[in-house]
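Subject: two folds for Thursday's group meeting

Dear M.,

Sorry for the delay on this. The cluster queue was jammed most of the week, so I only got both jobs back this morning. I'm pasting them in the order they finished. Each block is the input sequence followed by the predicted structure tokens. Could you check whether the formatting survives your parser before we put anything on slides? The first protein is the one we discussed after the seminar.
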Amino acid sequence: MSCKGFDIHDVKNKIKEFVEKNAFLNNILTKGAEKTHMEKEMLFMAIVLVALLLIFLIVGGELIIDLVGFAYPMYASLKAIETPTTEDDKQWLTYWVVFSLFKVVEGVADFIVSSIPFYFLFKVSFLIWCYHPSSLGASWVYNTLIKPHVLPLLGLEEEIKVGQSRQEVSRLEVTLKTLDLTPLKRQATIFVEVLVRPDGRPAQGIENCAYKSKTVEGIETITFEQKIVLSPLTDESKSSSQLVFRVKEKSTFGEDNLLGERTTPIKSLDINKPENLIMTICGCDLDADVVFLK
């Protein structure tokens, strides 16, 4: 059973993969499945749904909201701290800034929000929108509301100008255009990771300026039209580093699956001259425009 954006078989496979990694949990579910004549994956989902329902009925929705707003973001933040890239650190730092400000505003306006129908659902949806890879709403809230309106009130205009001037010195603009997923011959949840790799570093070595595209799902040609800016870059970075494109499949549990990657030397790019790159990664054609601005 599947529909656009949701495939029950894919969910069951992810749950099966997660369960089989935990011998104790796998043993309990195996025995439970034998007694109930249910699949382990369906039994696991039923237990989770019942647990959430009991939590909601016993302690109300606040604990569920805390789990949504704290549990996964905390896990992802700890994971980001241990990765060599800094972009995911910025992403989750931005989320926590937005989350903290949201809690302050919510506390001040409690007499208003308490009278809003279905506010619980709105709050859960907002928090998920803030950190979900396909939306990254926290970045939008920060750049649209906090940065132009709150930071000046805190006397941080000079820091904003310095940050903008650094971005204007030298930057690499990558516009992801299309990705043909037809060769995969199956529906998959895909995103493209773009990063700068210092020359001579191993694949899992020190990397910086890593950006993820929006997550897309399908089996045909996907249109991104998404611009990614990697900055600041020095002349040394341009002469010795590589621009890396990675096509990854989103994983519900554990690490995302790397389907393939392609690299191109940044020094091969002419300054201020856009270049179109069409690369074949894991059999899929990725179309992107790249320009080095200085």
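Second protein, same layout:
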Amino acid sequence: MDLRTIATLFVRTKAVLVGTLILLVLCPGFAGRLAAQSGSKAGSAERAAALPNTLTPQEKAAGWKLLFDGRTTNGWRGFRRDKFPEEGWSIEDGTIKHGRGNGEQSQNGGDIITIDQYANFELQLEWRISPGGNSGIKYLVAEEMVQSGHSGVAFEMQILDDERHPDAKKGGGGNRTAGALYDLIAPKNKVLHPVGEWNQVRLIVRGNHVEHWLNGAKVVEYELGSPQLKALIAESKYKNIPGFGDVRRGHILLQDHGNEVWFRSIKLRELPSP
């Protein structure tokens, strides 16, 4: 390469650099567009994962499915009903919302359940509660446990405004606070986001082993049918309910407790039997 060619390449390279610097100074948005264009496929996957009510390719490959598509009530119906409730529940801004009621259970549409039933599974979702609100996620729900009304009876991961709702101070040792196995086991190592913010749930049921996770921390762990659990049930509000704790396959339930609550990004994957 002769000196004239080298000189020409130098001038062109310098011109490109100067032009880029001018764009960066005069057009602040250019840097952002430049960075966006250079994003990798991994970056695209991360952005997709952050979108509510979506599955990443990795989640799909791992067997996850959406229980709520962000737009419809497909896959859900009322507890002890043939269809989705006509009052109380609605789809709002990509969420399943229960509207404000009188604070009593099952008086504003009743509980809703998945049409399908599950035995071994991992469930993930996000919830947001209103000030002073109360709700819950129940699992292994069998409708035959209840002979009337639209309120299900089953194991429950509590949803609560711990600071304002009086239920937080009832029960024993915090076993009615957010994340608890309601009225049975209090959560430990809990990280609870403030009212109005989203909280992330991970719920695992595999064989007799159950775990509650809240915002990345495991807060409850127990064994179905164990002597320890049976002893807790015998001292709880469930003690006089025949067959409580015996169900091993059932619906997922979102509770009507008469307060505003929102749910989104509800996804589940079935797990192999242990």
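Two things I noticed about the second structure. Helices lie at 3-26, 28-37, 41-50, 57-61, 227-234. Confidence is low (pLDDT under 50) at residues 13-28, 30-49.

Cheers,
T.
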